[in-house]
Queue: 2 jobs
Job 1
Amino acid sequence: MTDELFLQAYDTYKNTVYAVIFNYLRSAEDASELSQDTFIKLYTYDGEFDSDEHMKAWLIRVAINGSKNHLRSRKHISSSPIPEDMSSDDRYETDEIIAEVMKLPEKYRVPIHLFYYEEYGISQIAEIL
Amino acid sequence: MSENKYRKAMDGVCDKQFRLTGEEMLEKAKASSVERNITMNATKKRNIIGKFIGTAAACVIISGTVASAMGYGPLGDRFRKFFGKDEITAEIIDEGHFCEIGQEQSDEMFTVVLASVTGDLSSPKMLFDITVKDEQLAAENERLQIYAYTLSEEKYLNELDNYAMWDAYGEKDPDVNNLYHVCMNGASSFMINEEEVIAAVKQISFENDSVNNKFDYDVNMEYRFTVPKQALKETVREYYDDIPMNSGNIDYRLFFCEFGAYDSLFKFKYDFLGTELAGGETDYDNLYAKFDKDWHRFSDTFILSVDGTEYEPKELGYGYCDEEGEAFDAGTCCTWMTFPSVDYANAVNVTLFADGEAYVLKGNALELKNEPVNPRPDSEKYKESDGSSLYEYDNGEADLFYDDIVLSSGNVDYRLFHCRFGKEDTSLSVKFDFLGTELAHGETDYNNVIDAFDDDWHAFAGSFVLNVDGTDYEPKELGYSYCDTEGESFDAGTCCTWLSFPGINYKEAESVILIANDKTITLK
């Protein structure tokens, strides 16, 4: 993959990747680390993508697999996944919505994220998961 | 919950917390790529060395006869000392199916030795010895857990993301305080072909870690070896010309059996397109629950008779549908079941019974001695009953499916359709309709009324009690609702939610009763 294509992909999909991992791990620090791993895998990927949608689906798939592998060993779930340095106004609204979603069990939390954030249909979500 | 609000909120989190610029990420990717190349090159070097060791010295087949002659006694005794409950593997070792590897790797925390390989062609086993150098860590833990990939070299280097790790627990050596022994399942597809295998141990985990508070330790220890065919006990594989067995809804076609030391695997194909059960639906993702239910109900009637000894199913699989037609014809699905291990090779007559019908697999037809434990009710009896289907498993867990038992909160009719009795949780799933209810106040967009329905469910289900053999349990966790507005899983406008109680052993319980306000439902 060329540097230019990589930068473009990173700019387009960094939130997509981070958000799906964050939904699994519920830890900002771990999500950040695993997101970087995901993009490193993209950089070293030897295959070709048919389209941007194909790349996006690949990234989400790799992010989910990475999260699941990470979770298999995880003992502690962060109890405060909301960033500390947000303004109080932002924090209130973000806290409430994100916190409510984060309370859901994984089997609902992740599909809901994919439905509302990525606007995938249910069949697509089932394929990804 | 508005989707715009959720997206905005999540974007805010992403932007604040994941701040690596594109240039910074590119730099990291490039640096990692250089490291990976170095690792890969080193790997290739080790590959050659590993191969040499593998064929020359590290994989030594020791037969039981040789071991006895050398004064070792039954070779499986050492295995029994550490893995006393696994008599099957111990006997396989006694028979001489055992391959010594003896590859050692070490880092600052651990020394891990891939000691040997044993098992059979369907369930190979890798035996590891792990020394934990931190004596305090070892003192706090009677066992540890390891995670490893088992793959071919090609898959390991190029397709790692498509595979998950295996894991296994290791028990402490009775005589050495910081030594643990692990018996881990290997991937049979990669270990039976006499081609080189990589076992890559990636993590070692502990339940207690008061000193480092880390619990999970990343390791990177790769072991390359080739398993000679005679090191693994033979299984018997039989292929059939799609023997059809009808459940009343579906023709399940038996096409393959593998009789191993650990169990007997039976694989079936079936078509879903155009069947009445599919009801015109062409996307199997929307049908799998119905077909799994049909398969589990049908396979409960199966009995395997081997020279007159009868066996019930041990484990039931779930259907997998090959929509792209890569393995089978498109629209053809596959499922499976296992029975306990049987000596198929030496058996004279083997018959499989399904719902009372006999299918001869070997020799002459046998007769059924015992009725199946969970006979499939005939259709009339099924309709007259409470409409439930029960699937019990040997480990005490169970699934109970209902044809919608109504539990009314006064505002909403919640319809109980599934109970899952697990070790950790007992979870109950309910459906409900929101369209046209008073609580919805004419609203058709569930996003705008979700809080009202969640509040109703929590107020209602929060008072439920699960009585198990006279002991009352309160709910452990209450779910939030998810509404299938597009009708892809349920009817449009139908929502789903759940609650859980503590886990119970369904098999051992004599009486399980759900008390939902004024309604009492006997679950057992």
Note: The longest strand of chain B covers residues 216-226.
Job 2
Amino acid sequence: MVFKRLMRFFSRLFKGKKTVKLGFYGPVNAGKSSLANRISKDFTGEEEFHVSKIPHETREIQVKEKVTIKRGKRELDFNLIDTPGIATKIDYTDFIRYGLKEKEAKDRAKEATQGVIEAIKWLENVDCVLVVLDAAENPYNQVNITIIGNLAARKVPVLIVANKIDLKKANIRRMKSAFPQYKVIGVSALKGKGMDEFYEELFNLVRR
Amino acid sequence: MKENITIQFIPHSELASVNSENKLKKILKIVKENKIVIIEGKLKADEEAKLIENTMKQIDKSFKGIEIASFEEAANFDFFYKIKSGLARMLLGDKFGLSIIGPATLVKEIKRDPSKIELMVNR
């Protein structure tokens, strides 16, 4: 442990500042892209990730490179890696209900299945992960458990972000009791609520 | 009109000597026959991820994916329970726990919370 920290210190000293590959993982429509946008907007002034109410809007890995996050005198460089939502089922008729034409819906479903595969493969390429969950949904969902289980097996540091705390149904206590061994932070990426505590925990996560 | 739902139980002994790839193949084959599979033992985290990957590769007009839930023990039980369950896991290995997997066209949702499991079926 001490040796690892020393190595990290010397590698930073001689190679310059490390860029942390920060993955955004979670089920579909939990607000991964919204959170990535919020971070990007707070520190670069730009929103680069597509968001939509239609599920599976993110169907490819999106990377925003070198976002410098500052906390007082500290600063860290991140590559924000937004991944497609992980799902166990995809039915194109669900997209038709959102007003998409059959051909569009089928294409979206096909791309979404590829996106899920890509997201799982990218678990190998991240340094730290934000598992973004919808605070108004049941946290005891197998997708959540599978994602967290795979990250734990790879020893990737994880911060659970319970998004959408502005919603009436949001239940942060339930989120915390579902994952007692992890730090759970409540935010509203859309409204910018809870972001200060989130950034503090993000710095703690990287230090681990 | 009556509709039959088939639940197939796979004991640990049937999968113990099979490698992960063949285990997942077998599970998906049964699920694609429109059956709900109950497996004695919990799938490993990487097997669950691979099962999702393989499911995505096989989604087509008739196969829409799966519903899955694995059960071990609730994480927020007390210290003595955790010791007992830890011992059980040591003795039973991957025989400990339970996994339920069903086709998404048949199983609408598997609701779980620390104290109960509910399997909601499409009708």
Note: DSSP finds four helices and six strands in chain B.
